[in-house]
Amino acid sequence: MYRRLARHVVGFVSLGILLLAPAAANAQVIVKVNDTVNFRFGLQLQAWADWTQDANSEGYSQNLFIRRIRMQMLATVAPGVSIFYQTDNPRVGNGGADGNKIINTGFLTQDAFVEWKLCAEALMLEGGLWLVPTSRNGLESTASFLAFDIGAFALQGNTAENGNGGRDYGFGLKGYLVDDHLEYRFGVFDGHRNPVAPQGGGLGSEAGSRNPYRMAGRLNYDFFDTEKGYTYAGTNRGLKKIVAIGGWGDGQGT
User: How far apart, in whole angstroms, are the C-alpha atoms of residue 27 and residue 18?
Assistant: First the structure.
């Protein structure tokens, strides 16, 4: 058993965090093709120094590593139609508690989705790989967490329903009503896919992926300042007055 006694971010660079909290959007590169089509590119880098104490020996595992290195692209390709794409290569250089240093975690497609504004921001259709609308902490920007990282219990469906860092493949609707104070997010996702199963009577194997889809939804109401965008801000550093109440559901089959 290990208990976290100290975790310190010794380096942090955040450039052009697109579609995320405005407080983290320090810089971005914009390529404008015309009045309708444009591309925005950004970079996020978080470097960590981490100490974890062994509860038995009381010794420390010590690691210096890159927690996140992400590149982002936000493209507006038609009126009301945008594409967001984000990569990641997380925890590079981390040796963990066992000392097996991670040299390369592999190139990951973290987010890849299209958003079509069917009725301005009151009704938007989204499809691709994106954040499942569940807990607020699970929908917060990694560039503005109040703590150093996401809570241990923020993404409970991630393992059981084969999520990818709180994300899944699917389609959904999102919008802002009541002068942008009421936000809704609903989606149908791939979720857990059942494997091939044998059948009796010499019929061979039954096809896999025959189980129901994963469904999730969230409602959020802001009483004072409003929050809009792909993610929430973990902290606004005093620039906004946020008092919100929200609820969500996430399930698949029985």
Answer: 10
